[in-house]
Write a structure and sequence with these properties.
With 102 residues, the protein is mostly helical. It has helices at residues 9-38, 48-95. Helix 1 runs antiparallel to helix 2 (48-95). The longest helix has 48 residues, at 48-95.
């Protein structure tokens, strides 16, 4: 068992910033994907093969968009969690009555 524990709120805040950046980057990817696919309009055609392709394509697109939304949510939650942990550690340090060893 460790005799001492330590924490670095600044490192946690840095991690929060990186997670927020990743979430924003993923959001830009999602927007680019949605806009790019929307600009293709109806390229599948209106014949039987085109409709079958569109059905498969639309389902795959929905899964990809949903996965990206989930990743964005995860990145945002992680950023919030790291920030809250840093704040809690700072608060605990401020409230601590334990004397530091010299």
């Amino acid at each position: 068992m460790a005799d001492r524990i330590s924490s670095d709120p600044d490192a946690l805040r840095s991690a929060a910033g990186r997670c927020a950046w990743a979430g924003n980057d993923l959001r830009r990817i999602l927007i680019d994907l949605v806009e790019g696919l929307a600009s293709l309009d109806d390229v599948t055609g209106d014949d039987e093969g085109g409709r079958a392709f569109a059905t498969d394509h639309d389902a795959a697109q929905e899964r990809i968009e949903g996965a990206l939304r989930n990743l964005i949510g995860c990145a945002e939650s992680m950023a919030d969690g790291f920030e809250a942990a840093a704040d809690n550690l700072d608060g605990a340090e401020q409230a601590s009555t334990v004397q530091r060893a010299s």
